């Protein structure tokens, strides 16, 4: 009888440990969620203070727009710079207070931005679909660059958020990598 109780307790402890390992968030990542859900579509492992860029082709003037972001200690996402080639619909017309507006190498830069977002709603392009995610800036280069279309459905909307994810969520989503195998 005592041996049976020990076995049941041991199995119970193992079950609790397995469930904890599967469902308790342990890893931080930049996560693409389906809008208004907790369904992880894709994720990129990242840490606080890591930086990344979203590059997209503007649908009207067909030139690249680069938005630069940094992960904050409170898990918010700070936009600190935007780079674009032409003024127009959806583009800033100048810098706000505390920001710096520059024209360098034929491109407009707004630096020293301090825009904080708990998440970013983003739509993958459908007609002009050249959205890219860049991360891990090192000495003028990039550690990784992927096209959204390699991981996300063209034309679909997503919520981009820095979050903790569980082993279960990471298995169900797709890990973003600059390697060709997914």
Task: Indicate the topology.
Elements lengths: L1 H22 L3 E7 L6 E6 L5 E7 L6 E8 L5 E8 L15 E5 L2 E11 L2 E4 L8 E7 L2 E7 L9 E9 L1 H6 L1 E2 L7
Parallel strand pairs: 2-12
Antiparallel strand pairs: 1-2, 1-11, 3-4, 3-9, 4-5, 5-7, 6-7, 8-11, 9-10
Total domain count: 1
Label the overall shape.
Answer: elongated
Mean pLDDT: 88
State the distance separating the first and last CA atoms: 51 Å
Order of helices and strands: HEEEEEEEEEEEHE
**Helical coverage, percent range:** 10-25%
- How are the strands of the largest sheet arranged? 6-7-5-4-3-9-10
Poorly predicted regions are none
SS element count, helices: 2
Q: What is the structural class?
A: alpha+beta
- The count of β-strands is 12
Please outline the major beta sheet: 7 strands, antiparallel
What's the Cα radius of gyration? 21 Å
Strand content: 35-45%
Structure commentary:
The protein is α+β, with helices and mostly antiparallel strands and 182 residues long. It has one domain (26-175). Helix content is 15%, strand content 45%. It has two helices and twelve strands, in the order αβββββββββββαβ. The chain has helices at 2-23, 167-172; strands at residues 27-33, 40-45, 51-57, 64-71, 77-84, 100-104, 107-117, 120-123, 132-138, 141-147, 157-165, 174-175. The strands form two sheets. Strands 6-7-5-4-3-9-10 form a seven-stranded antiparallel sheet, with no helix packed on it. Strands 8-11-1-2-12 form a five-stranded mixed sheet. The N and C termini lie far apart (51 Å).
